[in-house]
Amino acid sequence: MAAAHVGLLSSAPPSTALYRHSLRRLRRPPPIISKSNSTSPPKTMANKHHMIQSRLMFFSPKTCMASMSEDPIREWILTEGGSTGITKITPVGGGCINFASRYDTDVGPFFVKSNRRIGPEMFEGEALGLGAMYATKSIRVPRPFKASFLRFGGSYIIMEFIEFGASRGDQSVLGRKLAEMHRAGKSEKGFGFDVNNTIGSTPQLNTWTSDWIEFFAEHRLGYQLKLAQRQYGDSSIYEKGLRLIKNIGPLFEDIVIEPCLLHGDLWSGNISSDKNGEPVILDPACYYGHNEAEFGMSWCAGFGGPFYSSYFEVMPKQPGFEKRRDLYMLYHYLNHYNLFGSGYRSSSMSIIDDYLRMLKA
């Protein structure tokens, strides 16, 4: 994954920015107290002068700058973020991989995710994906501001804090907005993305490829099959899966496939709405691919008839859509098998066997 430093959209966020973030309240440093058991005032002017000088050292610009540089999250918020003070830091639940917080400031809240165990690649990929989706001006996503290293190990991402509403919003609006993003987000480089990223915690390879079938076979299904063989010694699913990916060509006959910007991991946990009811999508695994691949997580996304009707009004359904739907689900079932174990193996194998029979492979 590219190790380029990401400093996305570094202009200060608007004061009404919405989303989830936080940090440590700036406190007045404690007075320096002698280790003697005396609590009475200093008996000499020399001692008094020494205490005043010691206290001033806490507030010297050099000391304050050193403290900020040890916390790059605070440093960004108090410089490029346009804030003069962080008033509150609140943990935000919901994730199982990263630590999330809301940082309240005088210019509005920020949302911060951090992880002490990983380098910045995962968050850099997320920031670039959010930035690409944000640039389409279609569906609402958190605006990314910064992703980089933590000073003593790990990494972080700072983004807009969006105040969520009480529901996931209108399914028909979600379908239309998602289709507008797919229509607006195109790539002249082919299928892939500028960096590799992650799907859950699994690496997702995004090497630019001119042919969609080749890309999906090698960098999606093929990678997951190799991972299953390496991780579980599962030669059966590996060998059958290889037979499948060598024979998927007929499923794509008589259709035009354009590289569309995909969220890449669109399940119910990554779909919400803001306080105005507008749909919001977050935590992406972006790449440019066949728009139908976006529905690969539909088995746990809750998409209904109104969603698909609105989507296809903007992005018309192509011949053979139903025949390809399970193929795109297979990628995510295999990923769940590799992430969470054997509970997802039977679903993966069932899809592979059904396609082998259908394609007579």
Keywords:
361 residues; alpha+beta; 5-stranded antiparallel β-sheet; two-stranded antiparallel sheet; 38% helix; disordered N terminus
In short:
It catalyses: N(6)-(D-erythrulosyl)-L-lysyl-[protein] + ATP = N(6)-(3-O-phospho-D-erythrulosyl)-L-lysyl-[protein] + ADP + H(+); N(6)-D-ribulosyl-L-lysyl-[protein] + ATP = N(6)-(3-O-phospho-D-ribulosyl)-L-lysyl-[protein] + ADP + H(+). This protein is of the alpha+beta class.
Uncertain ranges: 1-67
Give the helices and strands as they follow along the chain.
HHHEEEHEEHEEHHEEEEHHH
Strand order of the largest sheet: 1-2-3-5-4
- The termini sit apart by 35 Å
Structural class: alpha+beta
What's the overall average pLDDT, rounded?
A: 85
Number of strands: 11
Number of helices: 10
* Helix proportion range: 25-40%
How would a textbook summarize the main sheet? Answer: 5 strands, antiparallel
Describe the overall structure:
The chain is built from ten helices and eleven strands. It has 361 residues and is α+β, with helices and mostly antiparallel strands. It has a five-stranded antiparallel β-sheet with strand order 1-2-3-5-4, with helices on both faces. Strands 6-7 form a two-stranded antiparallel sheet. Strands 8-11 form a two-stranded antiparallel sheet. A hairpin with a 2-residue loop joins strand 6 and strand 7. It is globular. The two termini are 35 Å apart. 39% of the residues are buried. One of its GO terms (cellular component) is cytoplasm. Its EC number is 2.7.1.172. It is an enzyme of class 2 (transferase).
